[in-house]
Structure prediction request, 358 residues.
Amino acid sequence: MNELNVVIDSAKASFARAATPADLENAKALFLGKSGSITELMKGLAALPVDQKKSRGAAINLAKQAIEAALNQRRQALADVELQAQLQAEALDVTLPGRQRGQGGLHPVSLTLERIEAIFASMGFAVAQGPEIETDWFNFTALNTPEDHPARSMHDTFYVEGGSADAPHLLRTHTSPMQIRYAVQHVKQQRAASGAGPVGEALFAGTMPEIRVIAPGRTYRVDSDATHSPMFHQCEGLWVGENISFKDLKFVFTDFCRTFFESDDLVLRFRPSFFPFTEPSAEIDIQFQSGPLAGRWLEVAGSGQVHPNVIRNMGLEPEKYIGFAFGMGPDRLTMLRYGVNDLRLFFDGDIRFLSQFQ
Ligand code: PHE
Prediction:
């Protein structure tokens, strides 16, 4: 009996020393393997007298079971250790902050355009978009600027292929062609609605909802310096009805500028000027009463009462319809709002500059 206990203790001790599953299997062989201690003891049974065989055999079996139980226990313990190590090695800290993605944002001029659209929308203006490649008709002729008119030369621009000799295609030099495009569309709808016959017959003199629209977008001219870029933005405004006057222009534009610059004491000046498509015409200057630009007159838009010839080209009877138009520069408004002094910064695409507006 004692001898068997010694074998059991020695098995337990060597299992305990096994640090890995492989060590443990080697240790197992010493006791339970082909020539292990237990196997040798079993072999010894053959030499015993019959009366001792049974009890000795049972005792050895008990010892064997004890060793197997110790082996399984150790196997389980080693597997647990291994599992814990693996869990630790592969641990995820779900509380760590994720890797951030770079965040984009709107270009400062886009921010201005959104702001302009929101302010005019609040005054009941629709927003229209039009083509950047225009025909000579919409860009000049329909706007009361015939081919030999001197005002064309200061707008001379990029002509593109397509079109014909008497109707060339060009990059629009201003957003004013949208006055014609939008109004013609509007009048066409009114004619259809009132059964007044197709456009091209008599000018429309029926009643219709007013035309009240802004048209922001890119425009092009042969110009390049700190305050001029060959591509720049404009935003056209047009309000035509039966009784729309210069007074309305003053009210609308003053309200717009004060809202845009968040400055109630901003002062506006309408300075007489000339545009072929408006009569009378005015440049609009603004003056801040405080801040770094205080006291200076800053030009922000051209404007005027829509010329009767332009009203006609819209398909409207000028004896009945009248209104105003303006064209402003969102790039310049952006420079004034943020205190930027070089227009080219907006179009260089330098992230260090652009990210300051987010
Ligand atoms: N289109 C003119 C320009 O580009 C601005 C303008 C628009 C003037 C509408 C009067 C009315 O300079």
Q: What stands out?
A: Strands lie at 126-127, 133-135, 159-164, 167-171, 211-220, 231-241, 267-275, 278-287, 298-306, 322-328. The radius of gyration is 45 Å. The chain has twelve helices and ten strands.
